[in-house]
Amino acid sequence: MARPMFQRSPIPGLAISAGITLTLLSLVVLLPIGALLLKGAVAGPERMWTEVNTPRIWAALWLSFRLSLLAALFNLGFGVTLAWVLARYRFPGRRLIDAAVDLPFALPTAVAGIALTALYAPNGTFGMLARDLGLKIAYTPAGIFIALVFVGLPFVVRTVQPVIDEIEREVEEASATLGATRSHTIRRVILPMLAPAALTGFALSLARAVGEYGSVIFIAGNLPMISEIAPLLIVIKLEEYNYDGATAIGLAMLVISFALLLVINGVQVWSRRRIGYV
Asked: Alpha carbon of 82 to those of 16, 79, 170: distances in Å?
């Protein structure tokens, strides 16, 4: 007997809940993206290409996505390590560190940008130390990188930490009993179990970094071709009432972001299938 295409859910109110979910999804996500695509279609591909095909815009796009990817990779490594320490070890100040991880969630982005600038400016606490070493952090791409790491780190930690809590210590003990070294246990047992959650945190951190504005503009310096990010150019275009230019940059960021997230999602599905989750 053939199975029906739609099976009745044991949870009542499926039709109502699905309708509400799809309506909110359309209002919050699909309609804004559709409006952006419609604006680009009305202006025409040639107009969009003319607006985006300038050295200044390409430099801003390259800077934004390059630093966002580097910051997300850093957060992936450091975030997984920090989540492991917080989940597996007990030490004085652990709860304080655990609470501090969530600060970028609660702190307004403008406040974070001002605080980072005060710390890493040439006359700031860390800025003076860097200056003594012949380095400059604020008003350079290095400052942007630090800001993106700051806002993206919690996404990795909070995504991976619950998964680490669910991994039983007996799994590690069984691996050691079978003669595996610590590095082999981490590489062949622990990391495959953490890979799906870690990739999710990486994708969230990358997405946050690409669109970050408030915490970056204060520490970036906003020098064209050097430390100017793509979201700032969108704001500049809007202030100039150049809506076609803002749309073109937005579409370029949308296409690049979608391509990156599609690749990450593919890797995530592959990792889940490899360890038998799906």
From this structure: 41, 5, 21
Query: What's the pLDDT tens digit per position in 9-34?
Result: 565 566 777 778 888 877 777 888 88
CA atoms within 13 A on the CB side of 17: 5
Q: What is the pLDDT of residue 5?
A: 53
Query: What span, in angstroms and rounded, lies between the C-alpha atoms of 42 and 247?
Result: 11
In the chain, the amino acid numbered 60 is A
What are the DSSP calls for 29-79, one per residue? IIHHHHHHHHHHHHH-HHHHHHHH-SHHHHHHHHHHHHHHHHHHHHHHHHH
* Prediction pTM value: 0.86
CATH code, domain carrying 164:
1.10.3720.10
Query: Do residues 125 and 119 make contact, with C-beta atoms less than 8 angstroms apart?
Result: yes
**Does residue 263 lie within any of the structural domains?**
yes
| H-type alpha helices, the chain | 14-25, 31-43, 45-52, 55-88, 94-100, 103-106, 109-120, 125-132, 141-166, 169-177, 182-185, 191-211, 214-220, 230-239, 243-274
Asked if 261 and 200 touch (Cβ cutoff 8 Å), the reply is no
Domains: count for the chain: 1
- C-alpha to C-alpha distance for 91 and 103, rounded to whole angstroms: 20
Domain that holds residue 96: 54-274
CB 48 within 8 A of CB 255: no
Is position 21 within any domain? Answer: no
- Does a structural domain hold residue 34? no
